[in-house]
Amino acid sequence: MSLLRKLSVPQFKFPLIIFVLFAANFVAQSVHAEVEETKGSSALNFNPSAKSKSDKTQFQFIPSQDIKINDNIAVESPAAEGAPSLRRQPEGGERFEPKRIPLQIPFPKQTYRASPSITIINPSAYGASWGSAGIGIGYQERARFTDESDGVIGLGFGLGDAQENIGVQVGISLVDVSSPFSDGAINLKLHRRLPKDFTVAIGVQGLATWGNTDGGSSVFGVATKRFKLRQDRTKPFSELYTTIGVGGGQFRSESDVNEGNENVGVFGSLAVKVIQPVGFVAEWSGQDLTLGVPIVPFRKLPLVIVPSITDVTGSAGDGTRFVVGLGYSFSF
After folding, report:
1. Cα–Cα 20 to 30 A to 223, which of 45, 80, 186, 243?
2. CA distance linking residue 144 with residue 121, whole number of Å
3. Residue 70: which residues within 8 A CB-CB, separation 6 or more?
4. Residue 264 included in any domain
């Protein structure tokens, strides 16, 4: 194959891992931001006027007929020289003991530590900040114009603070699984969280490379917007994410890559959270369509698995291919 055609083959390898890699970490930041917005509220701050979500969380009241109380409130008290007593008096000399009413406070169910990815191949405007790191792997059943499978390993960490000023995500892509450190690239993204669930970023895929990465440098700018479809983010179809960006290099059309046109391409992603641990993503990479179903298999483990198919429309490559990514992130 020609060198130019070869350059169009692995363009997904850098972003596939780096953006699956920090999917779990992004959710932690997102949830933290929501907590800040609703600061002061807690499971222990009981609101008696709030409607209970289930019968199990309602207070259980004892019917008044089950408690035998004498309505004669004022009685003569010998010790008080004729002054009335305001203590209720039981009938028949029986000692009155009130029933105990169990207090049941509704505690929220523990949420997932990760959330489904909002992009697959494309970069989003979200990224890691200081205290976040991760590792991931990616696999494709075959590369474009070949019958050989391919894989990539990703490592990354965050610097700065996107909520207060600027976050910096640094990623390392090792594109030869059989000899991990012989071929690779360093990737960089600067990202900033803005009001109204809006985030922007600029970055470079392949800022520095070594060995044979089969790809050049790709500069991009991207914006992501989150839409809250339902107030409770744990409910089905509660969130929608839209991402749109422009970039050179791998984001150009396949024909522009083959012809050596140094222009820019447009990419975009649409993601919906179907249920809390499962999402659906459709995106245009600048060359072709990718469809995927990100899954968070464990509630307490920040692990994200993203099976997908790419080159769906046939406008690039030589047919539809299966791609899967796995990312695990953690805090320090």
Report:
1. 186
2. 15
3. 88, 89, 90, 91
4. yes
Q: What stretch of H or E contains 77?
A: none
Total tally of structural domains belonging to the chain: 1
266 phi, psi to nearest 5 deg: -110, 135
121: left (phi over 0), alpha (psi -120 to 50) or beta: alpha
Cα–Cα distance between 167 and 313 in angstroms, integer? 35
CATH code: domain of residue 206: 2.40.160.40
- Distance, CA of 132 to CA of 331 (rounded, Å): 5
Q: What is the CA radius of gyration of the chain?
A: 29
What is the rounded distance in angstroms from the CA atom of residue 83 to the CA atom of residue 75? 8
Contact between 114 and 120 (Cβ < 8 Å): no
**Nearby residues of 112 by Cβ (< 8 Å), 6 or more positions away:** 27, 276, 277, 296, 299
Averaged pLDDT for residues 128-133: 94
pLDDT per residue over 292-305, tens digit each?
999 999 999 999 99
